[in-house]
Amino acid sequence: MSVQAIASIYNFSFKSIDGQVINLKDFKGKPILIVNTASFCGYTYQYEQLQNLFEKFKKNNLIIIGVPSNDFGNQEFKKNKEVKEFCKTKFNVSFILTEISKIKGNEGHPFFQWIKDEFGFLSFPKWNFYKYLFNKDGELSAWFTSFTKPNSEKFLMELEKVLKK
């Protein structure tokens, strides 16, 4: 059996925007939303919607992780400090942000490669603000493209299912 066949979300980690390790296994039993983000994208306004979700559902242990990347349209700052300041100042982001990460190519973060391998080519981010919603058991409940807003009925219906499970 290959490593990819037995991989789960809990096998991955990221580095936080401040340099600490974020082990996804630390969030076992909690719903997790992972979103690839960018500061200068037409979808950047979704940061506000993500922050609103976080504030509304943190009592339900919802974990939101934003993964800034410069891979799509060169739309991210060059330094983590700039991303953090932008997100805090413009959107008052208090959910978890990772360091600026590669998503595409051989140097792409293993989480995104796993998404593609496990859930198919269409699930792999084609642009900023793809959303991956995992239930409390670490299973991918649904993924959404940039077009699906975090406050859309489609997204909220799926989130409600994950929170109730």
Tell me about this structure.
By secondary structure, this protein is an alpha/beta fold. The protein has one domain (3-164): 3-Layer(aba) Sandwich (Glutaredoxin). The protein is built from five helices and seven strands; from the N terminus they run αβββαβαβαββα. It has helices at 3-6, 46-57, 80-91, 110-119, 153-164; strands at residues 13-15, 21-23, 32-37, 63-68, 96-97, 131-134, 140-144. Strand 6 and strand 7 (140-144) form a beta hairpin.
CATH level 3 topology: Glutaredoxin
Distance between the termini: 30 Å
Q: Which strand order do you get reading across the main beta sheet?
A: 5-4-3-6-7
Q: What Rg is obtained from the alpha carbons, in whole angstroms?
A: 15 Å
Taken from the alpha-carbon principal axes, the silhouette is globular
Number of domains: 1
Multimerization state: single chain
Order of SSEs, N→C? HEEEHEHEHEEH
Number of strands: 7
Instruction: State the low-pLDDT regions, or none.
Output: 1-5
**CATH A-level architecture:** 3-Layer(aba) Sandwich
**Major pleated sheet:** 5 strands, mixed
